[in-house]
Every structure is written in C-alpha cells, then in structure tokens.
Specification:
This protein is α/β, with parallel strands linked by helices. Helices cover about 45% and strands about 15% of the residues. It is globular, with a radius of gyration of 17 Å.
Length: about 260
C-alpha cells in the first residue's frame, strides 16, 4: 500500500516544491517507487521533474474532473526515477468547476486508489493557499510533511497550518497527522535560525526531523535544468541532505532502505 503525504505550508516561498521533487528523487535512489502529484497550477514540480507541462495530454486537472485516470495522465521523470502526475494553468479552473461536483474534496483520493499497489510513496505538492485543491490532497493523505525556514514569520504560519490539519482531521480525514517538520534553507551562521530551530524542537519534540536541509545554491539552480538537485549535483550539500532525509523518513515509517 502506498503511503501518501502532502508537502504543505500555508506560507509561500518556503521550499515546498524543492522538498517534494528532491525527496522523491532521494526515495527513488534508495529503491522506493514514487509518484509525485503536482496540485499547484504553476506546475513547478512538473517542470522541476523534467516534464514539459505545456506538452501534457492529460494532467491532474483531467483526473480531478474524472476525464482521465492516474495511469493515463502520469509521466515518468526522464532522469529522476519517479512518476509525475503533472499540472499546468488549466488546474486553476478546477477550483471553480469542482465547487458544484459531488465528492469535490475526495476526487483525488478515489483516483489514487487505482494505482495504490504500484507505489511505495505518493508525494503531493500543495499550493500555499487552503483551497479545494489543497483539501483534495489533505483528504487522501496519511500525513503532512511541513518544510519550513527557521524564521519568526514561519512560526506564525505554522500555527495556521496546524489548525487547518486539526480541522481536516476532525471533519474529513481522521487518518491525517503531521508526520514531521523539515527545517529547510538553514544557514548556521544566523543566530536567529538556531533560536527558532530550538523553539521548534522544544515545542514539537520528535516531530522535527533530525535532517536539516542547508541553504544551497545548487538546489536553487537545479529547476532551471528541469532536474531535482539530488540528480543535478549529487555531491552537493543540499543533495546529500535530501538523500539523508529520504532515508530518515523511510525509517520513521518502518520502510528502511
């Protein structure tokens, strides 16, 4: 059975897509079968996996509207070793179209059931807003991985996300929980980042992953080449950290490499 995780944070620019594609590539490297679901109309996870969002015959939009299956719409990432259920600007229209449909918040859950046996992990890249798209992701997920920078405003956004997850857990998906918090873009030279990191550990305890993703130029450069950083520059500090994170997450879930 596939373990399904949303990579979510209601604050923008915290590295959700970078985390999604690099975790997927890291899990693939340690022998896991992975599907990335791009739920963001910008399609960054699609392009960052080397899949041209403009050339897709079917996208997650078609899957949500039940015009295509996941098997029909998915594409292999050419060099990263995982599959992608891609997105493009069409997906923005799904917000309006889903409102009047039955099971509007469970469409993705139903679609993923058909390929459940084919993957070990399904990673869902969520948009920063709490929308019907994000809700579809949260309703089918076993847990949420929260990438966050160790900055003051990140703590503010985290409390909003925790409240959202509690509401979805109570009303729509009792299996949903926070799997862990991943500290990203970490710069050890900045005192405030150490202080916020310690606050996170004291408040959330073992929910904070041990792995820390450093601020790394190679991770930032990789998307322009259509590759996750793990594939673009394997020896870089950022790439090595994400492979380590993939191992930690697998072990935490009882699926060691």
């Amino acid at each position: 059975m596939a373990r399904i995780f949303c990579i979510a944070n209601q604050k923008g620019g915290v590295g959700k897509t970078t985390t999604t594609v690099n975790l997927a590539a890291g899990l693939s490297q340690i022998g896991k079968r992975v599907l990335v679901v791009d739920l963001d109309p910008q399609g960054n996870a699609t392009m960052g996996s080397g899949v041209d969002k403009r050339a897709l015959e079917f996208t997650v939009y078609d899957v949500l509207l039940e015009n295509a299956t996941v098997a029909e719409a998915r594409q292999p990432s050419p060099k990263a070793g995982y599959d992608v259920l891609g997105a493009n600007r069409e997906l923005a229209g799904a917000e309006v179209e889903l409102v009047e449909l039955e099971r509007r918040d469970k469409r993705l859950k139903g679609a993923l059931l058909a390929v459940d046996a084919e993957y070990d992990f399904v990673l869902i890249d969520c948009p920063p807003s709490l929308s019907l798209l994000t809700l579809n992701g949260l309703c089918c997920a076993h847990g949420v991985v929260v990438p966050m920078q160790c900055e003051y405003f990140a703590l503010e956004g985290l409390s909003d996300l925790v409240n959202t997850i509690k509401q979805v857990h109570a009303n729509l998906n009792p299996a949903l929980e926070i799997i862990g918090l991943l500290r990203v873009m970490f710069d050890p030279r900045i005192t405030l980042q150490h202080q916020v990191s310690e606050q996170l550990k004291s408040h959330f305890g073992d929910k904070v992953f041990n792995t820390v993703i450093p601020r790394n130029v190679r991770l930032a450069e990789a998307p322009s080449y259509g590759l996750p950083g793990v594939v673009f520059d394997p020896p870089s500090k950022g790439a090595l950290a994400f492979v380590e994170f993939a191992k930690e997450m697998s072990e935490r879930l009882g699926q060691p490499a």
